[in-house]
Specification:
Order of helices and strands: HHHHHHHHHHHHHHHHHHHH
Radius of gyration: 20 Å
Structural class: mainly alpha
Shape: globular
Strand content: under 5%
Largest sheet: none
Length: 430
Amino acid sequence: MRPHVSTEQGSSIRVVALASFIGTTIEWYDFYLYGTAAALVFNKVFFPTFAPITGTLAAYATYAVGFAARPLGGAVFGHFGDRIGRKSMLVLTLVLMGIATFLIGLVPTYNQIGFWAAVILITLRMVQGFGVGGEWGGAVLMAIEHAPHKSRGFYGSWPQIGVPAGLLLSTAVFSIVSRLPSDQFLSWGWRIPFLSSIILVAVGLFIRMRILETPVFAKLKATRSESATPILELIRHYPKQVVLAAGARLAENATFYIYSVFSLTYATQYVGIGRQVVLNAILVAAACDGIVTPMYGALSDRLGRRPVYLFGAAMTAVLAFPFFWLMEIGTSWSVMAAMISVFVFSHAAMYAPQAAFLAELFGTRVRYSGASLGSQLASVVAGGLAPFISTALMSAYGLTAVALYIILMSILTIISVIIAGETAHLKIDD
C-alpha cells in the first residue's frame, strides 16, 4: 500500500519519515518508561506508607502531572516552531526529554529523603511533559510538510509508529529488568531503563541534526510571511479547529493509556495475572500496532481521513467490554488477544491518520501551534487522567464503569471527527 512517488522526491521524504520515526520512538520511550514504572514500581518506592490502592493512585497522579505540562509545551514550542522553524524545536525537545528521563533514574527513594523524593519526581515528570508536548507537532509536521500531497496520510503515519515503537522498547526493557528478584528490581533494577535512555538520546540527536527544514515552512520564512504571534492568531482564526482536534484525540489518547498503563494495575492487582504475562502481551500488541499503522495511513490517502478514523473510534466502543472480559479469563492467550484486538482495530486506525488530519486543519503560519495545542489539550483530560480515573472507577463501581468511560470517550471523538469534516483533499502549502 506504499504510495508511488518520484525517485528524487521519494528518497527525500523517506529519509525524513525514517528520521521522524526514530526520533519520535526515542522521545516516547522516555515518556512511556514512567507509565510502566508508575504501574509497577513507584507506589512501592516513592509512596510506601500508603495502602496499595492509594499508593497506586498517588503514583498515577504524578504520572498525570506530565500530561498537565503538555499543553504548555505545545504552546511554547508551537510558537517558536511557527516563528523559527520545525527542526530546531525537535532538537530542543529531545534534549529536554533525555535529561529529565536520565535524572529520574537517579532520584532517591522515599526511604532516603522522604517526601522530597516525590517532589523531585513530579518536577522531572513535568519537564518530560513539557518536552513531549512540543515534540509531537514538530515530528509530524516534518513528515507531512515534506510529503507529496496524495501521500500525507502514509508519511504522516511514520512518526506515529514511534509511539507504539517507544512503548514496545520501554516495555521490552522493563520486561527484562523485571525478571530480577523483587528486592533487586525495586532497589536498583527499575533505574536501568531510565539511565540507559541517554544513549538513545545521543542517537536521536545525531539523526535529527541531519534533516532539513520543511519546504513549506522554508517558503514561508523566505517570503517573511511567518506569524509574529502564532498563538494569538490561532485563537482568533482557528478556535473551532483546536477544540475539534482535541475532541478527535479523546478516545485514542484515553484508551491507549488504559490499555498500556491501567491494564497493568488491573491485571496484577484485581485479576491476579503475573506482570510478565501482561508486559509480554503489550509487547506483541505494540509491535502489531506499529505494523498496521502505515497501512491505515495509506488507506486514509485513498478513502479519506474520516472513514478510517471513524472506524477506529467505533471499534473502540465495540471492544470496550470484550477487552476486559478477555482479561478476566486470565490466561496468557486471552490477555494477548485482548491487547492485540484493541491496539490493531481501534488505536492504530485512529492514530495513523491523526497526524495528517490534525495538521490539515490549520494554515502553515499556525500549524505547529494548532496541531500541538489541539492534541495536547486532549492529553490532559484523556491520556494523563485515564489511568487515575479508571483506577478510581474500578475501585468504586467496578468494571462496567471503566468500559462505559471508554465508550463515552469514543462517542465524543466520533462527534468531533464528523463535525471537523474531510481534510485529505486540502492543500497545505498556503
